[in-house]
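batch_manifest entry 22 of 60
target: Esterase
source organism: Streptosporangium nondiastaticum
requested by: lab member K.T.
priority: normal
notes from requester: please return tokens only, no post-processing; we will run our own comparison against the previous entry in this batch. if the run fails, retry once and flag.
--- input ---
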Amino acid sequence: MVHRTHRRVGLTVLALLLALLGVQVPAGTAGAAENPARVVREVRIGDRMLDVAVRSPEIDGLTHTKWVRLLLPAGWDRNARRTWPTLWLLHGGGGNHKDWTGNTHVEELAAGRDAIVVMPETSGCSGYSDWWNHGAGGAPAWETYLLGELRPLLEREYRAGTDRAAVAGLSMGGQGALKFAAAHPGMFKAAASYSGAVDPLYKSPDGGFNGPDAVKLGGLTCLTDWKRLWGEPGYPFDTGDPADVRQRHVWERNSPLHQAASLAGTPLYVSYGNGTNSGTGWQWGGPPPSPARCTDPAAHGGEAVERAIFGMNQEFRARLARLGVPATVCASEGTHTWPYWERELVASFPMLMGAIGG
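--- output ---
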């Protein structure tokens, strides 16, 4: 973006002038000035939980402000000389920064772990993407905000480490977690997806829910034109012409399935149900989830959303296998609901923490 380039050049010239005049510039000041994200409010929620309101021009809406919830480890101090690794947990469609603590025991799960848990708020239809906006780009630019602005802000002001992070998410957040890991190799030391929308271009073979249907419903949730996100997917969804691909390249860029080759080298955990609600067979406080839950059902059940998720993830794991990209996969009976996602968070937590030393 031209305006950012001009700003960076101006800041560099200013820093040089200050140095020539003998003015001392504190370490990190230039980086902070280049980052437009700003903390505008903090709310302490107990001893270990902190909600932070962040304002950025990359956030769409009248206020340009979103929250991020932090779970802080024992001994954390914003003025500490050390830093802490981070686990990013991404919400699903229609969710926010409170979802993980409100629907799971992640606060208890992370107690005693030497890591910061980062739970950012986006929008109910963010796609964890920089929106296409009919080819114009601009806000909302969620990927730019989260990884280019919020991440360095947390490193600068909340002692988040710079080189040890893992990412996980559910549904739309599962798509975001794997998309981030693929688009930024090495940034995340492990990635996990729970009922992730891993193929936005999924075409149901039997008349069920298609991938683009979720994007269209997301547009209704956010009261916006769904085409702003990635444009139109083209054939075979909104046209009968195989040559009419429209903005398919934008969809593929944001699809973990189409970017699967870039996940090589990143430890992966992929879980999903088949749309049959048979109960989790597990509850918080009991033994760890049994591997016997991963029955690898051959067919989907009746719940519409997880039925589509099942099809997406079956194709995704097949793509990983063809590429020789290893992944821990748990396919089971289950629906698109929190009890299953919490179970899989608990099951994958040792892998995620082990990857970052938390």
